[in-house]
Amino acid sequence: MNGSGEDMLPETDTLTGAEPATRPVVRSRVERPAPDPAAPVMFEVDDLNVFYEDFHAVKGFTGGIKEHEITAFIGPSGCGKSTMLRCFNRMNDLIQGARVTGRLLYHGTDLYAPEVDPVEVRRRVGMVFQKPNPFPKSIFDNVAFGPKINGYKGSMPDLVEGSLRRAALWDEVKDKLDESAYALSGGQQQRLCIARAIATNPDVVLMDEPCSALDPIATLRIEHLMQELKQDYTIIIVTHNMQQAARVSDRTAFFNVSLNEKGQRTGHLVEFNDTAKLFTNPDERATEDYITGRFG
Amino acid sequence: MRTITTGDAVAARIAGRKLHWRELAFEGALLLALLVSLLFLVTLLADILITAMPVLTERAADFVSGELSPDPARAGVGTSILGSLIITIAVAVLAFPAGIGTAIYLEEYASDSWLTRFIRTNIRNLAGVPSIVFGILGFAIFVRLVSAVGLGGSVNGRNILAAGLTLAALVLPIVIITASEALLAVPDSIREAGFGVGATRWEVIRHHVLPSASPGILTGTVLTLSRAFGETAPLLLVGAVTGFFTLGEGSTVMDRLTSAYTALPVTVFSWSRQPSEEFRALAAAAIVTLLVVLLTANAAAIILRNRYERKW
Questions:
Q1: What is the pTM of this model?
Q2: Which residue from B minimizes the CA distance to A199?
Q3: Does B6 reach chain A within 8 Å, measured CB to CB?
Q4: Domains of chain A, first to last
Q5: Domains of chain B with CATH codes
Q6: What was the ipTM of the complex prediction?
Q7: pLDDT tens per residue across span A117-168
């Protein structure tokens, strides 16, 4: 398992070879105040495991996701970071044979309790996917669909405008709201998907590698947007890109893969720490190896 | 001495253009295959058109609206067209809801188990069963069923209702398969997007999956209707009249549904069996009518599909 390349953007390239590996490699470019250790916890996760049929996909995730923070899940391909993300809005329910054990408390309620309605969960925990996936409808209808099915009673044009403004897309689309969403560029489509996710007024926005299909400029716009959205929402982002995690997140969870006794690749949490600490002075040797580009 | 440059070497290699005989021969063989099939089609159509010409030029309107008659100078396909249309409507009403519903259940709701795989496989097998077998099914079951519920009329259930049920059973597997394929072609990312904003399964299907799949479903179903419109063999078993009949004055809609009937392809069949030259011309004219109806239906399917696809 050595360099997949995707994770090693220029910033790391120059440093991996010559520099001693103990040096911190990735620094947060934006100087931000350290995350507030007293921030209230939104999700409390205790020994969460995901299985697909007999296959143990991710094991034993434990930790807390705090309100109004950006939490990043990083790790090599197949480490189960996306699988773990999809537990937070019960998206895994849609996959046949998927099973979740352990506890995932959302504001103190177990998300996997039998009386919990997954549809209601997804209304409160929005999601943005890896590939922009607008509905094949107009820009307006894309944003309005969620509120409409949720029985939103207020003024729909106002809500659509507000959501598009918060997603930093309004100025680009205000004159063509009834045009197809497919006419937008990839970056615009992804911001439309963000607008769609926040239109239902969720608590949390999950982002599953939201920039992996976008060019660097569109990526930067989304990253800026995330810093603004953080004021109103709690964000969990899965990213393949360590620099992105370092740039945008407050806290980072690093997942790794190991072979289990049946020879299957099972993901597990290695370290969950403040982003600044994880990238400069990680507690675990495996984290350090990953962020210094020794594998991944 | 002149040195050989890279340019010389390249020119020597790429300038030696030759005729590729094997390429040409293969292309020629393919073209020949195309011409042979076209030739068959054109010959067939030309022969039918020429044979039908006397009828179509002299009394086209009279022919299209006329009733069945032993007199070739008065016989027409009006009754047959009406019968075929009623059967086709019955097929649409019976087979589409059941077929599209089955497809939605199989593709969107049912989990992938040995049972659903078994059902899918057998639906595909059913689509390949010869139509005469469905005729026997119709004769054994639908004719009796129609009689049992008191709609048998004067023909003991061998009426247009039994015919509609039989052809609906015949096209049902095809409707299910085409609708399933149209649903499968809708990318999962659309479903995930719907679920992601808190839509229920039904809302995702109703607002996103069905609108995206509808052009495909529509095309497939119209094509199955043309299949039903052109079927002959099963109808012969469930009572389509190959001779002559009239419903008489004052017959009601109910009489039409429950008594003797015929359909356009059955009329083609029965006229072709007549020895006289006049009936051969009538049969050819009936074939032309049948082809015009089928081509119109297929064209309508294509136009509808393009219109809906252009929307988004």
A1: 0.81
A2: B197
A3: no
A4: 10-291 (3.40.50.300)
A5: 78-311 (1.10.3720.10)
A6: 0.83
A7: 999 999 999 999 999 999 999 999 999 999 999 889 999 999 999 999 989 8
